[in-house]
UniProtKB/TrEMBL annotation:
Sequence similarity: Belongs to the TrpF family.
Pfam family, one: PRAI
Catalyzed reactions: N-(5-phospho-beta-D-ribosyl)anthranilate = 1-(2-carboxyphenylamino)-1-deoxy-D-ribulose 5-phosphate
Protein name: N-(5'-phosphoribosyl)anthranilate isomerase
Amino acid sequence: MVRVKICGLTTKEAAWAAVEAGADAIGFVFAEGKRKISPYAAKEIIRSIPPYVTTTGVFVNTELGEMNQIAEFCQLDMVQLHGKETPHYCSKSIRPVVKTLHMGGLDLQPEDALIMYQNVVRAFLLDTFVQGSTGGTGQSFAWSEVKKLQSPHPLILAGGLHPENIVRALEETRLSAVDVSSGVETQGIKDPLKMNDFVKAARFQHVTAGG
């Protein structure tokens, strides 16, 4: 079963629309940007949603103590790290870590990162490298690159996904988890119809692939 995370939620209405669309996980951005949410607002949203929906906090080079404090305060299930957090930093997280690998970047190559972080993370998220940005750009990378990676942990596909290309993305990468944000927005606002279409398309791909 393809697992879907909808990220960058900022309101209770959007969070519930994501849950009702069938999202397995929802994400809150605590880094600077247009989707940033305060820990207080995120906590109130998390308290309102039903059990068994995984909650994730997105951080970018946040001081370790602050990150752990927010994770505890909001009762996050996982943290997703999009910056230059070291393996040591990840090992000190009080929540399981999803580490983002920026595909096409000029610094640490994905193949090397998979080895460096293999003992301190739960999964890796593959996002598109965009100069000056850490995510949520709506740009995709060459999905053919995914097949070259040998990961000891699950890989999550992100970057430029939307209802019209999610089936092709899953067919090409054969991954079983995806993360979407801008691809289910209309004029910068989470769109319930797009969220519903995205989850349905991902589920349909799984059914057809399974025969």
